[in-house]
Design brief:
By secondary structure, this protein is an alpha/beta fold. The chain folds into 2 domains: 210 residues, Periplasmic binding protein-like II (D-Maltodextrin-Binding Protein, domain 2); 193 residues, D-Maltodextrin-Binding Protein, domain 2. 48% of the residues lie in helices and 12% in strands. The strands form 4 sheets. A 5-stranded mixed sheet has the order 2-1-3-13-6. Strand 4 and strand 5 form a beta hairpin. The longest helix has 26 residues. The chain is globular. Bound molecules: beta-D-galactopyranose. Beta-D-galactopyranose binds next to loops.
């Protein structure tokens, strides 16, 4: 028997068979990876040794989807780099930031992480020399012309710029369920706290949960919006620069308003995530929820329709003010994969990266040259407000207070949520400003 002939025969059958198989491929277009040369197609990115580890807390509810959309852009531009997504679950970074702090103290930083613009960045990572200045990237990418001038001072110290803002989120949003409001006769939108409380009295009497709330950081989020509504933007800003007295009667009124708002919340708040609380609204189980506009990303992921399944307005009494925060990415000092981290930062600061991330995340881009048509009706309204409103910073999301001050406020808040004693709470807030804020 001629071995050569048999081998060729088997080979031709195999080739024919594989041709038939590929012809039966269901008409789907091959992805670039599938059409690449065999070695490239099978080689996992780590075979090149190139990686980047990015740390955040975006693991679900619209947040992971936003991050994933930006990772797609990164991978298209950096096909030979393995992306290690080290997100740690827990809204507002409650768990993630503790994990990050441990890693930083052990000198094992991720290459890049999400750090809020403002005091969180400056008072923690810059102060502890954990992140590198990025002026070289700003110059190279022309970002100074395109990033908001209001934001640059919040990510800078001594002429150094320390992070790449990927978005602007709004904190003072009142989400509502239009059908629940209508069914209970709440047909005019409240414009101040008194009108809002009156509407919530009606809802409560009808057996509806007036205001959905979740775990403690969401209580701090509610508190900062009620303080803003009670004090107005100027005196609210004064809380953070020492010109508003935490012991004043105005602040006491703000805390009384906050205590009143808490009286409308669900009893199981402490055991709910922010997504659970927001979901109560779109499920028709609660009328309102005060939450940042990442809720928009979550509602979108749930397939809910703006203006039908959910409505929005500035928290009553805060119209004309945009209480903001900004997610930004940093470069670790001693980043194990510095070049790849810089490649990630370039995507985070790019128009393409931001226009992929933000329409899904429920935020507006930090860059001023976004393609507005990619953003839904809520986000377009947020863009208009960001451009025209008075801008103030968020406490719960790192803008106005450094970590030690915020953590003292949080401890005082935890006690207050348990005992509801306004005088003790106010005294603790005065003390917190003295020990860690500008009231020293
Ligand atoms: C904020 C963060 C947002 C969103 C939110 C809820 O601190 O800036 O991007 O993730 O927490 O987790």
């Amino acid at each position: 028997m001629n071995i050569k002939k048999v081998t060729w025969g088997v080979l031709s059958i195999l080739i024919l068979f594989s041709l038939i198989l590929s012809a039966c491929g269901g008409g789907e277009e091959a992805t670039p990876a599938e059409t690449a040369a065999p070695e490239e197609a099978t080689a996992p990115p780590e075979a090149t040794g190139k990686q980047v580890e990015v740390f955040s807390w975006w693991t679900g509810g619209g947040e992971a989807a936003g991050l994933d959309a930006m990772i797609v852009v990164f991978k298209a531009q950096n096909p030979d780099v393995e992306f290690i997504n080290s997100a740690v679950a827990g809204g507002a970074g409650t768990n993630a930031r503790a994990v990050l702090a441990t890693r930083l103290s052990q000198n094992q930083p991720p290459d890049s992480w999400q750090g809020h613009a403002g005091q969180e960045l400056i008072g923690t990572y810059v102060k502890d020399q954990k992140i590198e200045p990025l002026n070289f990237l700003y110059e190279e990418q022309g970002w100074l012309d395109i990033m908001p001038a209001t934001l640059i001072p919040l990510i800078s110290q001594d002429g150094n710029i320390y992070s790449v803002p990927v978005n602007i989120h709004r904190a003072n949003v009142l989400w509502s369920n239009p059908a629940v409001l209508e069914a209970n006769g709440v047909t005019t939108a409240p414009t101040n706290l008194e009108e809002w409380f009156a509407a919530m009295d009606t809802l409560q009497a009808a057996g509806v949960i007036p205001l959905a709330m979740g775990e403690q950081w969401t209580a701090m989020h509610l508190m900062e919006t009620i303080l803003l509504a009670s004090l107005g933007p100027e005196a609210y800003n004064g809380l953070w620069d020492g010109t508003t007295d935490w012991g004043s009667p105005e602040v006491k009124t703000g805390l009384e308003n906050y205590a009143k708002a808490l009286g409308y919340t669900n009893t199981d708040a402490g055991s709910l995530s922010w997504q659970d609380a927001s979901q109560l609204v779109v499920d028709g189980k609660a009328a309102y929820n005060v939450m940042g506009d990442w809720a928009q990303g979550f509602f979108q992921e749930l397939g809910k329709q703006p203006n039908t399944d959910y409505g929005w307005a500035p928290v009553p009494g805060t119209s004309g003010t945009f209480q903001f925060l900004s997610d930004s990415f940093v470069l670790a000092v001693g980043a194990p994969h510095r070049d790849e981290a810089i490649a990630w930062l370039k995507v985070a600061g790019s128009k393409e990266g931001q226009d992929a991330f933000n329409p899904v995340k429920g935020s507006i881009p930090a860059r001023s040259d976004a393609d507005k048509t990619l953003y839904n009706v809520y986000l377009q309204s947020a863009m208009d407000d960001w451009a025209s409103n008075t801008v103030v910073g968020s406490l719960a999301h790192g803008v106005v207070a450094n970590d030690s001050w915020k953590s003292e406020i949080d401890t005082a808040l935890g006690l207050f949520l348990a005992d509801k004693n306004i005088d003790t709470f106010q005294a603790a807030l005065v003390a917190a400003c003295q020990s860690s804020g500008p009231c020293q």
